[in-house]
């Protein structure tokens, strides 16, 4: 399948999802069919992210903080509330940003959400007051 696509593969690194790492039908298995030396390594950045998420769950303040971030996401994505949130941002001349769903495997989403809350904190407070 990949014989002509890649000339010299010696290693491959993915997260633990079976579609990527599966020994029988995963991408790594398909690549190894034509590149025997292409050993598979579980992505260390992904592993580190999973460790950080697990540690944050054990720190009460961090766990509670991210629970509140998740509740804000759920609340601000309700249709009527979302309309108010977007309108308030537009009225203040701010870039329209949203709080996304948290993911244990995508560490950057936590950073982005905290940044949106920090930059739009006044708007969020006003939306909570309005609704």
Task: Give structural notes.
- 61% of the residues lie in helices and 6% in strands.
- The protein is mainly alpha-helical and 131 residues long.
- It is elongated, with a radius of gyration of 21 Å.
- The protein starts with 10 loop residues before the first strand and ends with a helix.
- The protein has two domains: 11-42, no CATH class; 60-130, no CATH class.
- It contains seven helices and two strands.
- The model has no long low-confidence stretch (mean pLDDT 86).
- Strands 1-2 form a two-stranded parallel sheet.
Question: How would you sum up this structure in a few lines?
Answer:
By secondary structure, the protein is mainly alpha-helical. 61% of the residues lie in helices and 6% in strands. It has two domains: 32 residues, no CATH class; 71 residues, no CATH class.
Topology:
Blueprint lengths: L10 E4 L3 H4 L5 H8 L4 E4 L1 H15 L1 H17 L2 H13 L15 H13 L1 H10 L1
Outline: elongated
SSE run = EHHEHHHHH
**Numbering strands along the chain, what is their spatial order in the largest sheet?**
1-2
Provide the structure class: mainly alpha
Distance between the termini: 55 Å
Helical content stands at 55-70%
Q: Got a strand count?
A: 2
Query: Can you tell me the residue ranges where pLDDT is under 50 for at least 5 consecutive residues?
Result: none
């Amino acid at each position: 399948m990949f014989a002509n696509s890649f000339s010299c593969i010696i290693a491959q690194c993915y997260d633990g999802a079976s579609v990527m790492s599966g020994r029988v039908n995963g991408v790594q298995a398909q690549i190894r069919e034509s590149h025997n030396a292409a050993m598979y390594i579980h992505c260390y950045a992904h592993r580190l992210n999973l460790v950080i998420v697990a540690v944050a769950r054990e720190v009460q303040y961090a766990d509670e903080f991210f629970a509140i971030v998740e509740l804000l996401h759920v609340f601000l994505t309700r249709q009527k509330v979302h309309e108010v949130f977007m309108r308030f941002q537009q009225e203040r001349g701010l870039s329209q940003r949203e709080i996304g769903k948290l993911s244990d495997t995508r560490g950057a989403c936590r950073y982005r959400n905290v940044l949106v809350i920090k930059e739009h904190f006044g708007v969020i407070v006003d939306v909570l007051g309005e609704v």
